[in-house]
Fold these 2 entries.
Entry 1:
Amino acid sequence: MTIESKETPVGPAARPGPSVSRRSFLAGSAGALALALAGCGAGTSGGGGALRFYLQKQEVIAYFGDLLRRFESENRGIRVVHDSTTAIAPQFVRGEPADVGCFNGNLELARYVGRGQFRDLSGLPSAARVRGDISALADQYATYEDRTSLLPYSLAAAGVIYNRRIFADLGLPVPETWTQFVDVCTALRDAGITPVYATDRDTWTLWQGLFDYSVGSLVDTADFFARMKEVGTDVGPDAPVSFERDFAVPMERARTIAGFFNPDHAVRSYADGNLAFGRGEVGMYLQGPWALGQIALVDETLEVGTFALPVSEDPADRQARVNVDLALYIPERTGRVDDAERLVEFLMQPEVLDAYNRDNLAYSTTTDAPPQQDERLAGLQDYVDRAAFYQGAGTFIPTSIPLGNYLQAAIRTGDFDSMLRQLDADWRRLATRDATA
Amino acid sequence: MTVQTPLGAAAPPEGAVPARARHRGRPEAIAYLFLVPALVVFTAIIVIPAVVGIFYSLTSYVGFGDWEFLGLRNYAALVTDPTILESYGFTLLFALVTVVVAQTVALALAVALSRRIRFATGLRTVFVIPMVLSGIVVAYVFSFLFANTLPALATSLGATPLEQSILGNPDLAWLSIVVVSAWQTIPGALLVYTAGLTSIPPDLYEASSLDGAGAWRQFRSITLPLISGFVVINTILGVKGYLGVYDVIVGLTGGGPGTATRSVAMSIFGGFTGGDYAYQMANATVFFVITVVISIAQLVVTRGRSVRL
């Protein structure tokens, strides 16, 4: 993750002298340049007849590798290779995206959706099997005409991870209201156990957990951000919608929760958090299913459960934070539509899709999908079934706004109001240059 | 962020006839054989992309798809963006402080190592080790030291104010970045200074000591003037490197706490993943101009001090 700094050209290094005329010098240079560029072009076109499959999630490349081999053996004559590019942008900048993509359904992918870079998949048989309330999630960030640009493949649900042994030993219930949650935190602290372990060093953990959970069950995030985009440059204290007004109560909750953090939260990282929770030193941890595997590496036998954070006094308000962890797309620019669609259909088969989600602590996105059996996640199954879920507020905020860094400062000073005003100001600035999505 | 060693600068062409004069009217054609490929590559991978980037900074381009021409709107937004302005303030101050710290320490070490002391070669090798380590690795190791080891040490020594890691303190976190950046770049500067010191004829020191000059006087009146060219080179390369600070910050603070240690390079890089490509291209263009201006200013100020880059 380094940027090479550009060398500043110093000194009289390159200056054509008198004997070679300027014209012949320039002609020679141009010729050499043309050759060099031609060489670049030749290497990247074509692709050797293999279908290229791009997978964002590094952890499951081997898993999908096995699936691709199966697909090849079922479809003689089609060879599929992993496109190993680490970022999605260069593929599109070059105009050569992989033929089938599998990416996190987030704001970054939405930029491609919103600009019509993906084919309409609504005609595929598998598209009809995707749950309507889950494909609606993908549409919350961006749509293009009335296309089905993405097929949600895997849904991840997150909540408060808790240590069941500690809760049982202290006789603590799983909290269903905000008051109960605060009581649980107080009881844990009185028992000398860290109520909530936070890892401010990795700023994404702050918005993913504290921010998103505090907001999600109090504010309809999709509706809020749709209105924020409409209001655009007028967002502020006098506008009908603003961070300052709509997020005031949620951030009140966040401030209270932050009071129960481990004292050294400011310098702790995500890895520290997984370690501390895995060692059984922590009551609760605001993390998603991705942390469960890391925690299991520390202690496989740890009894872990998950619940949705209650932030109001009505248990019925509780919702789970979800995200479309993987979604399939076929770019407009593929030259292999038939093969690409065949691969998508292969991956969308119930047995393939359900097995993937079972094995990776996620939820299937299709109707009649079997429930997630893992008991660590059982607490969220009901929310997923009822579609009582939201996509985190932080996921709607472009990365140009350093939300995680702002949260770091707000947690330290306790001044969340300034942060909300800052968010409004940043939003106005982004709206001025149409960069809110 | 490595500081390069300008080897060529170590050998002043004493008494040599300048190449130009010798071949007046008859330049060596073979020179172009060496120059043209470098020029072509430089143009293809630096100049052309930079010009394309500068053009896109005037548009709403995100890297693909349609775009429209915005004129200077991105630049206007840039100068009113407090986050951006803060990053410039931090980066410039950081570069200034770090270059002073690193050059002072490097020069002191070089002078000490040039004396007749035991294990000078071995010590020199030890001091150069940080240079071969990757910045991000160094940063992660130091982040562990700052976050865990130092506070634990402070606790056991009873130094209460130091028990809180400076990484979590918005007023002090930048010091950790200065320390690590300096630690990493001192070896490069040390090598340049060592080369400079060996180029000073020893008889100058003998003569001056006969005249009764002390060590400080010798340093001020002989050493410093004779290695001033090396000081300039180190300072220019150092400032240039520190202005682009990125990996050390990512490993140490991630730009935090809050936005206290967010460098310009971090903002620019964020534009590529954050869909803010054109806006951050404008930022990069401004930053490029500032860097060039600083470099030229340094050259102008130090001109006439036998400096040849």
Entry 2:
Amino acid sequence: MKNAVFAVFASAAIFTSCQSVVDDLNINPNEFTEVPAQLVFNHVVLSTAAIAEAEPLRIAGMWSDQFVGTDRQYITQDRYEVSAATFDGVWGDLFQQGIAQAQIAQEQATAEGLGVIANYSQLLEGYYVAEAALMFGDVPYTQVNNLDFPDPVYEPQEDVLATALALIEASITGAGADNRVSTANEVFTTGETGGTTWGEFGSALLARYYLAQSDYPAALAAARAANFDQLSDGVEIIHTTTNFSENLTYQFEAEQRANYLSYGNDSTVESTLYNILAEGTPMSRADEKTDDAARLAFFSSGVDQGIYRINVGTGGFFASDANFPLVGYPEVQLIIAESAARTGDEEAALVALNNARNYWDEVLGTDSYDDLDGTDLSGDDLIRAILVEKYVSVFGLPTYYDIIRTDNLIGADMDTRTSPAERFLYPSTEISSNSSYPGDKTLDDPTPVFN
Amino acid sequence: MKRLLLVGALVCFAFGIAIAQRTVSGNVTDVDGQGLIGASILVEGTTSGTVSDIDGSFSLAVPDGGEVLIVSYTGFTTEKVVLEEGRTTYDIALEENAAQLGEVVVTALGIERRRDEDLSSATLVKADVLQRSGETGVVQGLAGKTSGINITRNSGDPGSGAYIQIRGQNTILGDASPLIILDGVPISNSNIGGGTGGVVQQSRLNDINPQDIESITVLKGASAAAVYGTGAANGVLVINTKRGRTGGKRFTVNAGISYGLDEVNREYEKQGVFGQGSPFTTENFEQFGSYVPNTGLSWGDRIADRSGTDVVNENGGFFTGDQTGTVYYPITEKGDRTVYNDVNRDQIFQTGSTLDMNVGINFRGDNSNTYVSFSNLQQEGLLRGNSDYDRTTIRINQDFNLTDKVSIRVNSSYSGVESNRIQTGSNLAGLYLGYLRTSPDFDNTDYSGVYTDADGIARNGHRGYRNYLGTGIPAYNNPGWTINRQLNPSEVDRFLVAPEINYNILPNLKLTARYGLDYYTDERRTVFPVLSAGDYGQGGLFRDEITEKTQNIFLILNGNTEISDAFALDYTVGYNYYDNDYQRLSGSATNLLVPSDKFVIENAIASNNGSTQALSRNRKNGVFGVLNFTIVENLLVELSGRAERTASLPDELFFYPSASLGYKLLDDDAKTVSFAKLRASYGEVGIEPPLYRNLSTFVSTSPGSGGWGDVLDGLNYGGTYARSAVQGNPNLTNEIVKEFEVGGDFRFFQNRLSLGLTYYDRITEDALLQVETPPSSGFTSRFANIAEITNTGFELDFSYNIINDGEARWRLFGNASHNENIVTKLPDVSRLILNGFTSTSSALVEGAPFGALYGGMYLRDEDGDFALNENGFPTNDVVQGVIGDPNPDWRGGLGSEVTYKGIALSVLFETAQGQDMWNGTKGVMQYFGIDPITANISTAPSDIKNAAGATIPAGTEFRGNVIDFGAGPVAADASWYLGNGGGFGSIDEQYIEDASWTRLREVTLSYNLPVTLLAGVGLSNVSVGITGRNLLLWTPFEGADPDTNLTGASRGRGLAYFNNPGSRSVLFNLKFGF
């Protein structure tokens, strides 16, 4: 009897050694463990929209008072009642979806012998890094996306920004820099004639970041090197009416979060942008040379359900198929204008300012803007007019950077604050998981670059 | 490999030779003379024995020296029969042992065992107790009936699933629910789905007809489950179905029909004072607000102040409603004073109904017995429209005796379930979201119709309070649209087949070979008609096809031997092979070309047609053994273990041991303390890492602000891939659950009072989780075995037979459980969200209870008081923290059963105390100005500020409340509720509510017609009954039955956010047999 038991134990033991039964099953049938560099690069390009056109644009827009939050969480966000978690998405888009993927794309493209794609990826890495530093101040960089450093340390904002500029600068002369930005991707488009090359795109970004650093001579040089000499120059993210390729502001307002974002409530709270463009308001800039009615109608479809709505209708600035300017002609002209004005060349400043104004006449088919000259504007007034023009031309981050850098020189309504919010808050995801986290900052803590 | 086992079995065979000296035969019956099949007859002091056959007869060779037969049968008193010289025929009648009969448990391997001999804390719930509730799902019927188990309904939707948790949560990534063993074979209890939106899913356990169940044993401890190794970490539910009867009439039929009525048991109140519109928060406070059509808010003017009739413009466009034919014109001045809260309520709620018909047939053949059942259940939801559940089941359980030694048993069943679901939760196209936010002065009755514009051009329209003329798509669905136009049908076909061969090699040695197949397909469709709110305004069609196939093979050798008078041994060894194949294929079409609800999935351009699939194939195999020693009758020892290999760690062999020790101090029915047994056990079980976590992958992306929904699909841009945010880890290992358990089982007063007590201490080591990593590291998370979770608790079950004579019986029974489930180690992570929203979630935090509610808190000063802003209002802390605990401090059930003659009354109360729930619904209703608290009209006692900083002059009436947060009275008006004082603000803490509840879980009154009445009509029994379920509820939680969860049967607990409501029911039933 005992033997029987032992025999059964023995035979049972044989079964357990049947490893073959369970071998080779732990291979993911649903996902790839490697993909071509091109596809990662496509992501790196498309993900610029998550920074320039999505949540950061909306928060920056509210905190610059271009927009007003009129529903739900946007009411509180507009009032600066934000917590660290508000910025989890933005930070993830910058670091995990942005910088890390740009580095992977470079590494993989280099390995595949695709030097051009590697170079473009490097340029976009510079973009993500620079934007991260400007939004958040001190941020990690050298230890980012490195398995040896699970808790990347934070480095001074100015150092990180310098690194970003170096990355972009190197790309401007790198492989494929002379190709138009529509090369090697289906995300970016530029003007039919002339158009913007990857190198010029890099220069335009440099101009934006030198300006943020208040390095006006460098900003001027870079903006000129960007060679935005035609109204159709610029880098745009393509949008169409196909589901989930629509303009992101359109998706937000028309499909996902109606009423959250607007230009304010009827007759009570209006955004500064609205007040500048509208006629008859105390902030209105309308005069004999300036008629903003068409531009206002382009941006806003007027009052409905008690709020000044974002124009997401056909032909509107935020229409479903309206491309989004990652870097547009007005921005670059106005960088030239401000940098020239601040370096003493008011003549050049006025030329660039007029170029920027005339852009809207071209786009809208109007004749609303007469050229300004030295008798109209000079000195501080000129700088202020340039900043106002940029404020009503460029939505989101670049304008928010101007507001912080100039300490709200144009006098936009800061709502419940008296001075601009100096930065975005570090995200809860870093607070909770990074042992190198440097400690909380508040909206009142200035970052070195802007001060 | 199977061949190998056969060889093993043959080896055993060779040893089974006994030398017969004389033969005795006879019958084993109960006291009524019904034959008992399978009674064990053993010659004392030998290994010689047999089991009785289908009629209770037996024949046995008695070796020399054999003097006494030991005859035993589960539920009956064991008899010793002295053999008389020369007599060869013995008719042995066994007496039923009532105390024992109720005290049987089924072990993890499906073996019935007397409770007195069991060393675990297992409890068994019998069919009658289980079915009394009349619940459509097997699991729901368990609620309140045994300690140590927590059952939470997903919602009151027809056929909705439930969450089952034994003791506490042990794992973060592994399966959250217990292992389900049906007739000896593990089956699937998948709950697929369970996000913050979508529809409430069924649970696969609901596929089983509760009428087929004989008993459910709840195995709570690790030691009892150790033979299942991985997979048993959350305890085991051992379900046995009915079998053909072995005695009595050859042919019996039992049938039942029940009809139930369901209604919503708890609703949110809505204010009926103020209309749709915007508030005045800077001036004109006493005018409250102004009418604004189409806004989401109900912060408008006072309805009673209106003129009485709407002034409309009949010269432009207009909308003609399909439902009533009413024509709606643009309103130029709102004058209507009607409040439509009741109309809008009645649009969606009704009294639901459930019709359940079942019939069970027993057939006893010469060498076989058969149980066949059919059932059909049709449930019409308490929500109107497309909400129903229709289940048909067939079961055939067949036992054959091929020879004296070989028997075959086949269990097979089919379930067909068709159901329609309603969109729920955080979902613009969901029911409660649109319903509860609807302004009181808006009539939802006409939800669809035709809009004719000023040029006379007509087009279809969807009318809701966010678009009253139906000119486009309302921001939220009209609830009528949600329940009537949107479709969410599902169809499940499930087959369970489990053949088994038993071979009695020797009287005391049995080989069982069992195969189990569980195969189902679950086909789900969703139709968002053109004009639905949310993502699919231009229409969306979705189809999911899920198939899951689970196969098991068991080879079990079970025997016993009495080594000496003082030492007996039961042994079981076996092998188990497990194979699970899961496939899910999903197809979709969005932006429909033809604006039709017809499910033509090609109805979109190619770029709006999508498909995805998810596959997984998992296998495990292991050997297990159980040794039970009985030493001098009183000392019981059990050792068990399993050695196992799994597909996710194929190179490693894991061993899960367990040991239990029990000592019977007393066992004398005649004494005041009739029985006492102490037990202690230690066991280990495991959880293998999920498949495919070993390597980082590349995933296709949709950049944008995913949380808000505005994204760009990379497929529209040539395809975009990014390295996944989750870092793979090739060095994962198994999670090990170690548990120590002590307890005792006692009976007092001649067995009338029985009491079971258990204390356990359980720890999960190397708990695997997706650790949040800094996004700056390039990943947002990685898998690592670094957490530690503990569960400690007490369990108590008691039963007291207060009266027990022939005609009258009164039994009181109850249970109580306390469990503390703490995440003791969670290195490198401040919090890990299990489910919910980034604002409020159910999360893991080191040192906090499992699934703690986590969200925005008040900013407080050093003394713990609110830090107030310059207007005297609290503000939010920028850092989130733990704001609640969704786990109850204790749960309990208390029941009573009284029978007198043919009348039986049973009552069961259930309670859960001390748990918190996030009332997100209420917070949002305050934001929108729907919650009655926001409709209070207050008078400023002095010049007081509102949250916007405006001053309300003393004596001014305003809409809202005067609150003193610590710096004197302030005006909590719309500016407060629309900001941090409402559900979209950053102070989530204020919506954490005590969700303790006590309910009359069920009450049943039934009457068995006297047999004398039935003789003439050919029926053997007839009973009629009425059951009330959930009739009374006591809870401080406002607006909803807290027995619900937004994210369904998921680990994240304690979230209420526009969940579909719960129900209370009354059921009438008729049962008869012949």
